[in-house]
Automatic annotation (TrEMBL):
InterPro entries: LolA/LolB/LppX. It comes from the Bacteria. Residues 298-336 are annotated as: Disordered. This is Lipoprotein. It comes from Streptomyces melanosporofaciens.
Length: 357
């Protein structure tokens, strides 16, 4: 059965992480149906709009976040700037039950090599390395990482651990943070993609965001703490948030802004296609190289090994593992993802028995 996957490429990978953090703050865009929480039909659009106007700003934001938690799928487009990647743009589609994502990212101004696609299917991540990767993987342009098998030792060099955590995130996880801001206010009404919305704005610090987790259950706190860690890594300690909520009480657009150690974070996410089917298939097997197979080595058919395999297998790592993991994955072109993966696999000392293919 096909499942949805995140898609992102080379330099856009770390950007994808920042973007996805923004997505989490946005919550969902479209509604999950025409029934209220009690199963009864909701009122007319005009009635919903009037009710939204009567609600306190923080309450309206909180209600939108709750509705977002019920979404089963959605699409979104993004544009903005991150501290590490500069200007980026992209599109994505996500299914939450089960979690599956397809994403395409572009790092603007960095050339065509900065375009990326990533897919997550049945617990495996697929990275599209393009023509450059095909030259190193016997004509195969896709690299497969089975996240449950390879673990951090092999995927760490690719930032795969971070990517898998991003892929597992529910877009509603952070959407309630804005309601915890002291200065949440109603800005006015605006139309986005033909949809009438109410615009809310507020500013919140990371300590306030962390404090807002005190009343949440353990699982929710754990998920959202990981999101806060992403902001801390960027050096962002305060976020200005704008949320546009449609007449059905769902987030239509979300913008977040902050200043990081390496530059500004300014991302805008616009949602659509709530609960519409999202399907993504794994790349064709004949176009895919499994990283687990690289870790095993070319035992069965040495001739099938990628060029230079034996030499890489015999040599120690060119870069210490901690340094590799610390390298910004967003600065890598698609082909270099595959080179890093091959190095990680060829230098792995993990027993073959632990690598299920």
């Amino acid at each position: 059965m096909a499942m949805v996957v995140y898609g992102g490429h080379g330099r856009g990978t770390r950007a994808a992480g920042a973007v996805l953090a923004a997505v989490l703050l946005c919550g969902g865009a479209v509604g999950c149906g025409s029934s209220g929480a009690d199963g009864k039909p909701e009122g007319k659009a005009g009635e919903k709009s009037s009710e939204q106007v009567r609600m306190a700003p923080a309450a309206a934001v909180r209600a939108a976040a709750k509705k977002s938690e019920k979404l089963t799928s959605f699409r979104y487009r993004m544009t903005g700037r991150t501290p590490e990647d500069g200007r980026i743009e992209g599109e994505a589609a996500m299914s939450t039950k089960p979690v599956a994502v397809r994403m395409t990212m572009r790092a603007l101004g960095q050339g065509t090599d900065a375009a990326v696609e990533i897919r997550l299917v049945d617990g495996a991540m697929y990275l599209d390395g393009g023509k450059e990767a095909a030259g190193e993987l016997n004509g195969k342009s896709w690299l497969k990482l089975d996240l449950s098998v390879l673990g951090e030792k092999a995927t760490g060099a690719l930032g795969g651990g971070s990517l898998s955590r991003q892929a597992d995130k529910n877009p509603a996880d952070d959407s309630a943070f804005l309601s915890g801001a002291d200065d949440v206010k109603r800005v006015g009404e605006e139309t986005i993609d033909g949809v009438r919305t109410t615009h809310y704005r507020g500013t919140i610090t990371l300590p306030q965001m962390r404090e807002s987790l005190e009343d949440e259950d353990a699982a929710t706190r754990k998920r959202r703490e990981k999101n806060l860690e992403e902001y801390e890594k960027m050096g962002v300690d305060r976020l200005s948030m704008d949320m546009w909520i449609d007449r059905d009480g769902h987030t239509k657009r979300f913008r977040m802004r902050g200043e990081g150690d390496k530059g500004p974070l300014d991302m805008t996410i616009t949602f659509s296609g709530l609960n519409e089917p999202v399907t993504v298939k794994a790349p064709p097997a004949n176009q895919t190289m499994d990283l687990a197979e690289l870790a095993r080595g070319p035992r069965a058919d040495p001739a099938a090994a990628p060029p230079g395999w034996a030499a890489r297998r015999a040599q120690p790592p060119a870069v210490p593992a901690p340094a590799v993991r610390a390298e910004s994955s967003s600065t890598r072109a698609p082909g270099s993802w595959c080179r890093a993966a091959m190095r990680a696999a060829s230098t792995s000392r993990v027993p073959v028995e632990t690598h299920r293919v």
